[in-house]
Design a protein that fits this description.
The complex is a heterodimer of chains A (about 475) and B (about 600). Chain A has about 475 residues and is α+β, with helices and mostly antiparallel strands. Chain A contains 13 helices and 21 strands. The chains are: A alpha+beta (about 475), B alpha+beta (about 600).
């Protein structure tokens, strides 16, 4: 009797263990359904983004198809991709990238160094790009100390246009079809890092976040972006969340083209009046960080040095000393950005406590220039100099016209130069950073990731490691 | 103005005044009645508003109670921690929407806003009034609610939720806006407006009615300002382009007595104005008809009354003007004062006519007698020597031929002289009886006067004659008159001769000419003996004379000549004070005179 029971127990255990093991084992197959707000206009990595939405889509979607030589890693460094190693000369004017061998493109052809060189050569005229011995050599007349970081940009993804007109890459997925509002990808069977688990990825573009969330709740989609205020709702429904590091800056940018731009005292008072902590804690459910500077702390390391403390009393004093006509401002936000709208409303409440009356407007049509805008700026997870340069480029060349700093630091500038420049901007209140936002995604019930989170700290999508489990009740 | 017209005007005026009085009375009565009714409607509308506000307040209380009792709020009360982040700032929105509330705040015990449906971004800030309420205010109250872009007026209710030792406040309410005003059912011609007193100064944007912001709010601003300041009801009549409107304004106070709103109930005066207009038009029409009827009636009545009076007056005028032939206008019917007047007038007229005829007859007889006496007197003188001469001839028949011839010749001479005298006398009478028609021409009266005076100058200058001074007071610009210079000269001569005869001891004669309004006046005044009253009355009677000699036809001829020239002559005199003859001649001859006048002759000097 005892023996029978022990055998029965052993058999049951084996069955349970088998089920558990089976449940944890990734499975091949299925179509991963994704919805994004951004819309991809063209698949050519070399093409200039047509708008902000296109640029955002390219940053996340093109790497699924086209790979760069190197990529940022979550630790803040670089990881090899199509290049396994790289070295430079002492001056930094010549770089050599060793290509990964036996990389197959989507059309089955082998990655040809000459084609790689040709692709890169077409990107930048001033580079002398050559190939030799499964390596790419990039030379320049001037020093390129951060060339690997530069090459992480999707513009330098390796793509080849075939005679049929198709553009092929080496990414884990190949393009099956790009049609209005939908990008259909197929798994690259010969992907050098191993075939993706899912057979296909279907990406519906141009879907507003509230709809994305609804579709996720209904089980129609597996991966959507989520705004911070909606995190609680997602969690209450038992859905999982993944988020990147703070990769986005929400900042107040004053319009310098108005006949009478907002004066420095008012800008300063506004900076003192904003309660960033409460905003991040309550409104953004701790899925944001107060932004003392343009670049987040994890990228620059000096952001905390530029923090402006909350001081409403001083703000009131400064505002009280100004004429009444200067105490009313208009703040414009993107009418399609509900998160920006919520943040803008909170800024208006904070400003009112300091005696400033801010009218938040989100016009759909032409409207008079506002005093200030609340803008979102994507921060490339690269070096501080590149990130700052890209951020200032995104903000516009005249954004800094209210103060008179020196010219923005060039890519490759030292951290000290970057710090000095950003400090001048912050102290002059030409731009008021508000919060840094991560990219937050909600996952459907059947989404599993084999090799760590499918959203990296850098914001990149690691969809090759995603597999679809059985639908959970 | 004739009696008939005066009577007509009087009757018409009485009718018009009566109609006007009636119209005014009716208008005033209608206005009072309307105002009374209007006041009642306004009071009813205000009462309705108060009821609706009370009902709305009760509804707000019920809905806030439901929210307070809901699991969601209880959960918040239980789970809330000041440091807790586990809440959605928009969590209050569905709670408010579910209960149809426009405002919902969930406030912590320290007054910090936990959640806000109408202003989610305001979390963490102190609520201005939720925790300041005392516990003895179970009902709803009026409150100004701050919103991101405005301040609204709301009916609010506050409840507390206690969970163990934790307490939260639930403050909810609904807006007092156009929708609320739309729920009011007002009579035709009335409207309700709400002024939300949420700004320091009166602002037109805060005045709303059931449709939207009031377009023409300017005229209402003073009334609103008055109510804001006085916190008392007030009334004012505003005149709009399409009519007047009476506005009653009452303050709406909050929990602390502050004026948070002003309710304005307008009652259009267009209906009253239209009614008054219709009454007045009716009055005008009826008045006009009444006046017409009155005029017609009074004309007919007046005609019956005034026609005999007018006829009597016309007859009296005719008689006064010398026309004695018009018969009495009204046959005496033996009834009424008018008939009595007509009968008396008729009798009087007959008697006057009778008397006149007798007088005329008597005068005619007297004139004939006078004429006969004068004729006998005039004829007797020249006839006496004729008779003597004839007797002498008869006696001379027996005388020798030579003596007979002498007597015959002497007698023939005497007879011829006597016959000539008789011819002269008869000629004068004949002249008077057969006055020639005047030969009219333009003559200067001053010239005729001067010529006449020159005729007598030699006589006046004759030695031994009593001194008679002749003074000329002639109008320097008398113009000319249309007259017969010969006849007019004779007139002046006769009058001057009479003046000279009246001053046997000398005296003064003044001849005066003056130009008047279409006439020329000639005056000849002397300082002679003057005339008695009887003489003055009879002086123009033919053959009447005060002289020992003379035919008595001179002044009659003067009067006839003046009459032939359509003029007038009269005399002023008193015994011992001289006599003045006045002649007034028209500048242009009347048509009748001109038609009878001889063809005009060129006056040759």
């Amino acid at each position: 009797m005892w023996r029978f029971r022990s055998r029965l127990f052993a058999a049951a255990s084996a069955i349970v263990c088998g089920c558990v093991i089976a449940a944890a084992r990734p499975r091949y197959g299925g179509t991963l359904r994704i919805e994004t707000h951004a819309v991809l206009r063209t698949l050519d990595p070399a093409a200039t983004p047509l708008d902000v939405s296109d640029a955002a889509a390219r940053t996340r979607l093109l790497p699924l198809v086209f790979e760069t030589l190197v990529a940022p890693d979550p630790a803040g460094g670089l990881r090899p991709l199509l290049a396994t190693s790289w070295e430079r000369d002492a001056q930094g004017t010549r770089w050599r990238f060793q290509l990964r061998p036996d990389v197959r493109l989507h059309d089955g052809s082998r990655l040809d160094p000459a084609e790689v060189a040709s692709t890169l050569r077409a990107r930048v005229d001033s580079w002398q790009v050559s190939s030799a011995d499964e390596a790419i050599v990039i030379a320049s007349d001037r020093a390129l100390p951060d060339l690997p970081w530069v090459l992480t940009d999707v513009r330098f993804a390796i793509s080849m246009r075939r005679a049929s007109g198709d553009v092929v890459g080496s990414g884990p997925f190949r393009v099956e079809r790009l049609e209005a509002g939908r990008l259909s990808l197929r798994a690259h069977e010969d992907y050098w890092a191993g075939r993706p688990f899912v057979d296909a990825v279907q990406i519906d573009m141009g879907v507003v976040p509230p709809e994305q969330l609804s579709h996720l709740e209904l089980g129609r989609v597996d991966l959507v972006a989520v705004n911070a205020p909606d995190v609680r709702r997602v969690s209450q429904r038992g859905l999982r969340l993944v988020e990147s590091r703070p990769l986005e800056l929400m900042a107040l940018v004053f319009d310098v083209n108005r006949p009478t731009p907002v004066g420095e005292p008012i800008r300063r008072a506004l900076a003192l009046a904003i309660d960033r902590a409460a905003m991040c804690t309550i409104l953004l459910q701790r899925h944001a960080q107060p932004a003392p500077a343009l670049l987040p702390q994890w990228l620059s390391g000096y952001a905390s040095l530029l923090a402006v403390p909350l001081d409403r009393a001083q703000a009131r004093t400064m505002v009280g000393a100004r004429p009444a006509a200067q105490r009313a401002l208009t703040l414009r936000v993107d009418p399609s950005d509900s998160l920006a709208h919520a943040i803008a409303e909170r800024i208006a409440v904070d400003a009112r406590e300091a005696g400033l009356f801010i009218k938040v407007e989100a016009p759909d049509t032409l409207a008079p220039r506002p005093d200030v805008r609340l803008v979102r700026v994507r921060l490339d997870a690269k070096s501080p100099d590149l990130a700052l340069a890209r951020a200032l480029a995104a903000l516009g060349p005249r954004t800094t016209a209210l103060v008179a700093p020196d010219a923005p630091p060039e890519p490759g500038a030292s951290l000290a130069d970057v710090y000095r420049y950003e400090r001048a901007l912050i102290e002059g209140n030409a731009i008021i950073p508000v919060v840094h936002l991560p990219e937050i995604y909600a996952l459907g019930a059947r989404v599993e990731s084999w090799n760590g989170p499918l959203i990296l700290a850098t914001g990149a999508w690691d969809l090759a490691a995603v597999w679809l489990g059985a639908d959970k009740p | 103005m004739s009696l008939r017209n005066r009577l007509t005007l009087l009757v018409g005026g009485v009718v018009a005044i009566t109609v006007a009085l009636v119209t005014w009375t009716v208008s005033a009565s209608a206005r009072r009645a309307f105002e009374t009714m209007d006041a009642r409607r306004t009071a009813a509308s205000i009462a309705q508003f108060r009821r609706e506000v009370a009902n709305e307040g009760d509804e707000v209380v019920r809905r806030v109670d439901r929210i307070t009792a809901s699991d969601a709020v209880r959960h918040i009360a239980i789970e809330f921690r000041p440091s807790s982040v586990d809440r959605d700032v928009n969590e209050a929105v569905p709670l408010a929407n579910a209960q149809g509330l426009d405002f919902l705040d969930i406030v912590a015990s320290d007054g910090t806003i936990v959640l806000s449906a109408h202003w989610p971004a305001r979390f963490g800030y102190k609520h201005p009034w939720a925790t300041a309420l005392s516990s003895d205010r179970p009902g709803a109250f009026l409150q100004a609610v701050e919103l991101p872009r405005e301040t609204a007026l709301g009916l609010m209710s506050v409840r507390t939720v206690t969970a163990g030792d934790r307490r939260i406040y639930v403050a909810g309410g609904r807006r007092l806006d156009q929708q609320f005003l739309q729920s009011l059912v007002l009579p035709e011609g009335m409207r309700a407006l709400l002024y939300r007193n949420v700004e320091p100064e009166v602002s037109r944007l805060q005045l709303i009615d059931a449709s939207a912001n009031v377009a023409q709010a300017g005229p209402l601003e003073p009334l609103i300002a008055r109510v804001r300041q006085s916190r008392a009801e007030a009334q004012e009549t505003v005149v709009w382009p399409d009519g007047p409107e009476t506005i009653d304004a009452m303050p709406l106070t909050g929990r602390d007595g502050a004026v948070l709103g002003v309710l304005l109930v307008g009652s259009s005066g267009r209906e009253l104005a239209a009614l008054i207009g219709r009454i007045r038009w009716t009055g005008v029409v009826l008045g006009g008809l009444g006046i017409l009827f009155g005029v017609a009636a009074s004309y007919g009545v007046a005609a019956r009354v005034t026609r005999p009076v007018e006829q009597l007056a016309g007859a009296a005028r005719a008689i006064a003007s010398g026309d004695w032939t018009i018969p009495s206008p009204i046959q005496a019917s033996g009834a009424g004062e008018i008939d009595a007047l007509a009968t008396a007038f008729d009798t009087m007229t007959r008697q006057l006519v009778d008397h006149r005829e007798r007088l005329v007859q008597a005068e005619r007889v007297a004139a004939w007698r006078e004429l006969a006496r004068r004729l006998a007197h005039e004829l007797k003188n020249p006839l006496f020597p004729l008779r003597i001469t004839i007797d002498n001839l008869r006696r001379a028949k027996t005388l020798p031929a030579e003596e007979f011839d002498e007597v015959f010749t002497e007698s023939m001479t005497t007879l011829a002289t006597g016959l000539a005298n008789l011819n002269a006398v008869i000629g004068r009478f004949s002249d008077f009886a057969r006055m020639p028609a005047p030969a009219l021409e333009q003559v200067s009266p001053n010239e005729i006067v001067r010529r006449t005076v020159n005729l007598f100058q030699a006589q006046l200058d004759a030695p031994g004659r009593p001194a008679i001074a002749v003074a000329l007071d002639l109008d320097p610009a008398p113009g000319t008159i249309r007259a017969d210079p010969e006849q007019l000269g004779r007139v002046c001569q006769n009058l001057l001769l009479n003046a000279f005869d009246a001053m046997p001891a000398g005296g003064a004669v003044t001849i005066r000419t003056r130009r008047g309004e279409g006439v020329v006046r000639l005056e000849i005044a002397d300082t002679g003996e003057g005339l008695t009253e009887e003489e003055r009355r009879r002086i123009f009677t033919p053959y009447y004379t005060t002289k020992q000699h003379g035919t008595g036809l001179g002044l009659a001829i003067v009067q006839a000549v003046v009459a032939d020239h359509a003029g007038k002559i009269w005399v002023e005199s008193e015994p011992g004070r001289g006599t003045t003859f006045h002649i007034e001649l028209p500048v242009s001859a009347p048509a009748a005179i001109a038609a009878l006048a001889a063809p005009s002759m060129e006056h040759t000097s």
